[in-house]
Structure formats: C-alpha cells, structure tokens
Amino acid sequence: MFSSVAPLARLNPFYAPHFQLAQDGVRKRTEPAEAPTSRRSLAAASAAEEYSCAYGSGRFFVLCGLEYSCEYGSLKFYALCGVGGVLSCGLTHTAVVPLDLVKCRMQVDPQKYKSIFNGFSVTINEDGVRGLAKGWAPTFIGYSMQGLCKFGFYEVFKILYGNMLGEENAYLWRTSLYLAASASAEFFADIALAPMEAAKVRIQTQPGYANTLREAVPKMFGEEGIWAFYKGVAPLWMRQIPYTMMKFACFERTVEALYKYVVPKPRSECTKGEQLVVTFVAGYIAGVFCAIVSHPADSVVSVLNKEKGSSASQVLMRLGFKGVWKGLFARIIMIGTLTALQWFIYDSVKVYFRLPRPPPPEMPESLKKKLGLTE
C-alpha cells in the first residue's frame, strides 16, 4: 500500500526524506490488531479508500493522521494563503500607522522631526493624539491588497519554479528559489499597493493637504491625473522587492536553521504553539535584515510622493548617503515587529484553515545516493 505513496510524495520539490519515516510510523498506527468498530474509525477508513495517494492528496493526509482542508498547490490553497496575506499585512501595517507616520515625517523634514521621540511629541502638539492615526485608511486598504498578492503569489511562484527546477535542484538552489519567487510576487504586489501608498504619504507628510482618503484621492487626481498614484511604483519596486526577497528567503532559511540547530526536537514532534513561536522568532530576525536592506529606497519613496515634479534619482542625489538612512532605528523597530507578526498571523491562518504546511526541506534520497551519503 505504501509503495505507491513514496514515489508520488517525491514529486513535491520540497520533498523531505523523513516523510518515509513518518509513513513507516503511520503504518504501525494504522494497522490495529482488530478491525475498527467505532463509526468514526469506519468513516476514516472509508475516506482513506476514496482518496488518491499523491502528496497533498486526501489519502496521504489521512494516513499521516492529518486532516487538511485542501491539497497543497490547489486553487483553494492559494486563495486561503491570499486571505492570510490580507490579514497579516493589512492588520499589522494599520497597527503601526503612528510609528510609520513619524518615520515618514523624519524622512521628509528632518529639521523639524529630529528623532522618533521628538517626532511623536511634535505631532501630538500640532494635531493631537488623533493626528497619529492619519493615513490609516489607505494603509489598511493598500497593504491588504499587497498582502493578498505577496503571500498568495509567493506560494504560486515557489511551487511553479520548484517544479521547473526539479526535486534535486529545488533543494540545492532553494535560497535562489525563495528569492525568485518572492521577487516575482512582490512585482505584482507593489502595483496593487502604489495608489494607496501615494495617498497615505500625502496625508501623513503634507499638513493641511487632506485628512482622509476621501479628500486625498480626488485632489491628487485633479492635480496630476492617474500618474499621481503610480509615479512612485518604480521606487516602490526598489524598496519592496529587496525587502520581500530578504523577508521570505531569510525567513525560510532561519526556520530551517532553528529546527536544525536550536529546537531540541523535530518539527513533526512540536506542537502547533511551539511551531508558531519558531515562526515568530524567525520572522523577527528576517524583519531586522529587511529594514536595513530596504530603508534607503523607503526614504526616496517618502520624499518623492510628497514633492511634485521630482524623480527618484533627483531625490536620491539630494538626500545623499546620510539622508537616506534617516529614521533607520524607527524602521528597524517597526519592520522587525511587523515582519514577525505578519509571519505569525500568516502561519496561524494556515493552522486555522488546516492548510498543508510542508516541513523545512531536506536533501532528497536520490541526491544523497549521488553524493555517496547512503549505501
């Protein structure tokens, strides 16, 4: 029975050899001395007979003691991953709007907003506590759309590119695979984000321009047309694509390293809660690197969306090396926490919807044989 499971399981580009060990353990658990007598056991046995044995199929998950709601790589899987992206990005970015507002103002007017604490003080004195929430609507809408595309398309491209590479190359070149998949996903995610990001920056950095999204959108369109919403898309790519590449590749490899060197037991033996703790820690580590990599471009975007008629190269030259790093400390705090929470929420959504969550990749048996690591 299990001779047909193993070959099909290896079709997955992130196939791990210990799946076979898990199957051997399942075989012992699923061959009781007596036939099942309970209605639930009979239903489970019946369900196992109805499914195919491909990796990600119902029978595979039933035999492994898992009850996944869909197959890995199915349309439902991608759609629910997109939902996880909406929640993880939309909620977290909206929660840090005050910090983001102060960071943007430090970038566009460093003489007035000298530090993160001074920035909060000046903002509250001028606009009151409510002023810290300026731009929450475009932030929520824009980053929800970005999260939908970022996480949803990342899963699509990761599986697509993994299948193109094949099992062995997908393992050997897995970091490049993560980088390529995340860059491809972010390209489309930034197109979805650009209009709301432009409106958010106008609201946050130009006092008196507009207080709400409803006021900002028609005013921007009347002044510059549709270009007002997309003139920042190229700087967004400069900021977000390196950020996302670091976010996903660093996260994936950090999770792999934590389970290999830090966590005292295999992932399969960890509870869902323990797995989510690992997710949060790996997300925070990835977030710190993300903030550093993307900060110069973030400074350019903030200034560019405030000014009319300027180009990204002009803004970059005017800011200089020192200017593009203004507000880095605030961004590290914001992005580190943000990224950790995003991965935690995203993984929690996967757990809640019972989506397949493949373990960290391990070297395929075929590659072990080629390298002489097995007899």
Automatic annotation (TrEMBL):
Q: Which GO terms describe its cellular component?
A: mitochondrial inner membrane
Molecular-function annotations in GO: phosphate transmembrane transporter activity
Q: Where in or outside the cell is it found? A: Mitochondrion inner membrane
Q: Which UniProt keywords apply?
A: Membrane, Mitochondrion, Mitochondrion inner membrane, Repeat, Transit peptide, Transmembrane, Transmembrane helix, Transport
Q: Which residues cross the membrane?
A: 276-297, 328-346
Which Pfam family is an annotated match for this chain, by its short name? Mito_carr
Solcar repeat coordinates = 76-160, 173-257, 274-352
Which SUPFAM superfamilies has this protein been placed in? Answer: Mitochondrial carrier (SSF103506)
How this chain sits in the membrane, per its record, is: Multi-pass membrane protein
Primary residence: mitochondrion
Q: Which InterPro entries match?
A: MCP_dom_sf, MCP_transmembrane, SLC25A3/Pic2/Mir1-like
* Listed GO biological process terms: mitochondrial phosphate ion transmembrane transport
Give the reaction(s) catalysed.
phosphate(in) + H(+)(in) = phosphate(out) + H(+)(out)
Describe its partners and assembly state. Answer: Interacts with PPIF; the interaction is impaired by CsA.
Q: What does this protein do?
A: Inorganic ion transporter that transports phosphate or copper ions across the mitochondrial inner membrane into the matrix compartment. Mediates proton-coupled symport of phosphate ions necessary for mitochondrial oxidative phosphorylation of ADP to ATP. Transports copper ions probably in the form of anionic copper(I) complexes to maintain mitochondrial matrix copper pool and to supply copper for cytochrome C oxidase complex assembly. May also play a role in regulation of the mitochondrial permeability transition pore (mPTP).
Please report which protein family the annotation says this sequence is part of: Belongs to the mitochondrial carrier (TC 2.A.29) family.
Per its record, how is this protein called by name? Solute carrier family 25 member 3
- Species of origin: Patagioenas fasciata monilis
